[in-house]
Amino acid sequence: xxxxxxxxNLNQFxxxxxxxxxxxxxxxxxxFGLLGxxxxxxxxxxxxxxxxxxxxxxQITVCKRKVEHAQAVRNITGYLPQEFSMYPNxxxxxxxxxxxxxxGLPKSQRKQRIPELLERVNLQDSRRKKVKQLSGGMKRxxxxxxxxxxxxxxxxxxxxxAGLDPEExxxxxxxxxxxxxxxxxxxxxxxxxxxxxxxxxxxxxDRGEIIYQGTVSELIGQAEGRVYQAExxxxxxxxxxxxxxxxxxxxxxxxxxxxxxxxxxxxASARPCDAGxxxxxxxxxxxxxxxxxxxxxx
Length: 298
Ligand SMILES: Nc1ncnc2c1ncn2[C@@H]1O[C@H](COP(=O)(O)OP(=O)(O)OP(=O)(O)O)[C@@H](O)[C@H]1O
Fold this sequence. Notes:
By secondary structure, the protein is of the alpha/beta class. It has helices at residues 42-49, 70-74, 92-102, 107-120, 136-147, 166-179, 192-198, 216-223, 234-243, 277-285; strands at 4-14, 17-28, 30-35, 57-62, 65-66, 77-80, 154-158, 184-189, 201-206, 209-215, 227-233, 245-252, 255-261, 271-272.
């Protein structure tokens, strides 16, 4: 059966500050990416969906359960928060077992499920290690194992790859994709590359509003025909930055290889190139103010 989250007209306030504005979103089985810069409202949305924050206005159902029925939603939802830490002095197995006790899993189920999960997140050989001895990536994987201990239909992960090295990052993303085969996995991130590698469906949040929802390929389609590449001098670069959005650059001696967005070919040596998700994200964000960032290599 397909899992489904439906969000209608969600408005969320912290006192007078409105953190989410008229959010309408449907999320189905598989990986769903929630992209947005810092302060966009991602964590707020994740917390409302996982019932850690009561919603201010609107309707939300998680697999047909209303979020007002917090316990019913928690029974089918796993959450890995941005700042995840757990029992540093316990061993990996003890920590999982303790969490299992807290979530009411009977001993026989814990004995069966915990080794299976540790194997799944590739921590079976570290089950006797203390949690504080694990690397950042191992801790995140343990975080996933605890979040899916009760076999939830929905897994919500907030900024999971921050601070991971490239290898751990890829391993972690692959793990999320496997988990998403038969449930909803919502991946909230400001890292465009995390979304590109894993999610077909995404939403982009900015200042509390959804400014895009659809597939990654449709988003890329919006920037198609507007991406160019050229080798230019450093002084020409300053001029180009005034006129166009530079999405990446690579220094080549005195020159710079730049990739940038332009509605039309700006000069003869500029070569058109295929749009990528980072170009498309920058195209979407242009004119919205604030710092969207730019990668420094291809
Ligand atoms: N407890 C709070 N009280 C008041 N304002 C808050 C609170 N928590 C968040 N905000 C504000 O709500 C907005 C959305 O914050 P949120 O943490 O949801 O964004 P985010 O996209 O998750 O960003 P980040 O990646 O930096 O966590 C921001 O303007 C933030 O300052």
